[in-house]
Design brief:
The protein has 197 residues and is an alpha+beta fold. The protein is built from seven helices and four strands; from the N terminus they run H-H-E-H-H-E-H-E-H-H-E. The protein is globular and about 45 Å long.
């Protein structure tokens, strides 16, 4: 597919099979993230690629335990609320059982940290779509990046003490019939456009 088709047909996948992602495909996806534009050509995104099933389970359990300590507050962002409510029920798996989780970190205090990390993550999602893989941009580790238990665990996996997690990508084979990600056209109702001619 061409670049426009890869962008326009990309949708989030939240149901994955346990089938591992081929290493050659994973390398293409990571390289797409590494090739993303960045402020001042800083190239300071750090990609922590987790494929170890035990680590994914431990991280999921740890995130569930930490979210369960939160209270639901009025006006809470809906996804945060879902994270808290399901964690309190003990059923929450923030990465949707995907066989790959890529945490994108960047330097603390760097003014373009979120933009650079988000662009890199989008590049990886588009590449995943091209390779017939599903992906989902998730914020849970971003919300927990300052949590002491999450930081300690992630630092054991390679997160620098001078870094924060800005984005996370769940990645794998779609559990939809046929194994391909959802590519149904999305009816856009938001994101208004103002033309000044």
């Amino acid at each position: 597919m061409d670049a426009i088709e890869a962008i326009m047909t990309r949708r989030s996948t939240r149901k994955f099979t346990a089938e591992p992602v081929r290493e050659e495909d994973l390398k293409i996806i990571i390289d797409a993230g590494r090739a993303a534009p960045c402020g001042g050509n800083n190239q300071s995104c750090h990609f922590i690629v987790i494929t170890d099933e035990k680590v994914l389970e431990e991280l999921s359990l740890l995130a569930r335990e930490e979210f369960a300590k939160w209270d639901v507050t009025p006006g809470m962002y809906p996804s945060k609320k879902t994270s808290v409510v399901l964690s309190k029920k003990g059923t929450y798996v923030f990465h949707y059982h995907a066989p790959v989780l890529i945490a994108v970190a960047n330097k603390k205090g760097y003014g373009n940290d979120m933009a650079d990390s988000a662009i890199a993550t989008e590049n990886m999602m588009i590449a995943a779509n091209e390779l017939n893989l599903g992906s989902c941009y998730i914020n849970q580790l971003y919300w927990l990046t300052e949590n002491p238990k999450i930081r300690e665990y992630m630092e054991k996996l390679g997160l620098g003490k001078d870094e924060n997690i800005l984005a996370t990508l769940a990645l794998g084979h779609s559990a939809l019939e046929g194994g391909l990600p959802n590519r149904k056209p999305r009816h856009t109702t938001g994101n208004p456009v103002t033309w000044v001619k």
